Amino acid sequence: MLRALGRLVLPQECAGCGRPDRALCRRCTALLGEPQRCEELTQHLGTPEYAPHQRPPLPTWALAVYAGPVRHAVLAWKSGGRPDLAAPLTAAVERAAGAVAQIEWPTTEGRVLVVPAPSGAARRRAGRFVVGELADALGRGLAATTGREVAVVDPLRRREGSGHLLGAAARSRDRARAVRCRGRLPEGCACLLVDDVVTTGATLAASADALRAAGGVVVGAVALAVTAPPGSGVIDLSGPGKETQRILREVD
């Protein structure tokens, strides 16, 4: 009754397209579909064309392209203005665990560690640690689909002056010192990173470096969305979710 009255005073609308009465309508929710590999869309996670000495690509999955309704919804959630979006967005990541569980896990025993990408202290204090909520959701999904023991841990922090707001070239130079891990991890434990949006992949790459230095084996990363690079032809994804999946499959 109170919920219904609240809707009369403050009508709820879809954060993606503005349709009334849902936090995220079915059409916009469908854009967050089956996770697809996306590391080759990024500068820091894919195969380095002229640097064969670098590490192999980090297997990275995204549920959607960061454009149109998906971008609107993620921004609304991260801003703190639409906490009602936590339920549909985390549910999409929890469902994605089934596909991600097919990765190659280390043979060592022990827990799988699901690790959120580092987030600023101000965002944490404001209760807008959205990557933490996404990590919790993925952890639940992995535990249910793999039967493995899964723990969600939060050891990563940005170093002061890490330059995470710099351009791509500067972030590449800064990567080695951008993220630190607070303490050692169980030697050889499997780590799966989680982020909300992947652009150049610099944050995830620096996070993977920090986890490896602390003793972990980074097996992959999962994000709600990936930013399509210039020239990909992605302008607006307000149509059916199949279009998002087609674009992501092209780089798999």
Describe the structure.
With 252 residues, the chain is of the alpha/beta class. It has one domain (33-249): 3-Layer(aba) Sandwich (Rossmann fold), CATH 3.40.50. 35% of the residues lie in helices and 16% in strands. It has 9 helices and 8 strands. The chain has helices at 2-9, 26-29, 68-78, 86-100, 121-125, 130-146, 168-174, 202-213, 241-249, and strands at residues 36-37, 60-65, 112-116, 150-152, 156-158, 179-181, 190-198, 217-226. The strands form 2 sheets. Strands 1-2-8-7-3-4 form a 6-stranded mixed β-sheet, sandwiched between helices. Strands 5-6 form a two-stranded antiparallel ribbon. Helix 8 (202-213) links the parallel strand 7 and strand 8 (217-226). Residues 1-9, 162-166 and 234-252 have low confidence and may be disordered.
Could you give a short description of this structure?
This protein is of the alpha/beta class.
Topology:
Layout: H1 2-9, H2 26-29, E1 36-37, E2 60-65, H3 68-78, H4 86-100, E3 112-116, H5 121-125, H6 130-146, E4 150-152, E5 156-158, H7 168-174, E6 179-181, E7 190-198, H8 202-213, E8 217-226, H9 241-249
Parallel strand pairs: 2-8, 3-4, 3-7, 7-8
Antiparallel strand pairs: 1-2, 5-6
Helix pairs in contact: 4-6
